[in-house]
Amino acid sequence: xxxxxxxxxxxxxxxxxxxxxxxxxxxxxxxxxxxxxxxxxxxxxxxxxxxxxxxxxxxxxxxxxxxxxxxxxxxxxxxxxxxxxxxxxxxxxxxxxxxxxxxxxxxxxxxxxxxxxxxxxxxxxxxxxxxxxxxxxxxxxxxxxxxxxxxxxxxxxxxxxxxxxxxxxxxxxxxxxxxxxxxxxxxxxxxxxxxxxxxxxxxxxxxxxxxxxxxxxxxxxxxxxxxxxxxxxxxxxxxxxxxxxxxxxxxxxxxxxxxxxxxxxxxxxxxxxxxxxxxxxxxxxxxxxxxxxxxxxxxxxxxxxxxxxxxxxxxxxxxxx
Length: 321
Fold this sequence. Notes:
Blueprint (H helix, E strand, L loop, with lengths): L10 E4 L8 E6 L2 E5 L3 E7 L10 E11 L7 E7 L2 E9 L2 E5 L4 E4 L4 E5 L4 E6 L7 E10 L10 E5 L4 E4 L2 E10 L2 E2 L8 E8 L4 E5 L5 E8 L2 E3 L2 E3 L4 E5 L4 E6 L3 E8 L5 E5 L2 E3 L2 H12 L33
Antiparallel strand pairs: 1-25, 2-22, 3-4, 4-5, 5-12, 6-11, 7-10, 7-12, 8-9, 8-11, 10-13, 14-15, 15-16, 15-17, 17-24, 18-23, 19-22, 19-24, 20-21, 20-23, 25-26
């Protein structure tokens, strides 16, 4: 998934200094961003005042959109380095192509996990023909220093483990939850889980007190630790929790995101995560010159051009603005 904004704003993130060490209830609202030709997304991370949850550093929520008479998602080839992308659908399909030669249709509740490592490029599009509705989330995970230059690779997992309780099914995308571990490769202590709650359910989800957490609402109406969280919003929960109370006023879909606070300070610009202005500048030049990121074959259109760098030096700082 790409950041397609033509005036790309740098985000500084990482560092433990601003991690909330105790449980909190901080409701984050989204800003709307156009993605490709016809898709609009609600961007929850990076957010004003909150840049990361563990190693999670980018969260877009989109749909449900009726695309029966539209092309749907059309994201032309674009580059990444220093991160993993996570594709997660509730409805519809996304066709993934990348510079490694991967060609994969991702369907609801299947994990599409692309590790960029030192460099990769990819495209995403709604296949033809495609389902009427498109609804999902696209997320990034920052790679730590020891793994950010690894060889790029792509994983697709159609079957994922789940934790169940009366009225609750928690599908584990990444990391582990209550003894269920995802087959997706991770490089920091992290968890991502899709929570399907039936109307009237009241339950408690076990958590790791050393992790910081947030909950993204995908659909329906649910209360998270007593706070109503509506679709397209996200509740930041801080650290120090051993369990999370959940109550569903209707059938509801949530995503639990968490992880050990990410100690390294980062600079994120456009589709790159680096440690310095020089790294970002070099990556942009390599993409524009056709170096390093490879080529995506089969996409019917031109690749994206990188926006201009801002006229200031990009510097890594803390987790909040």
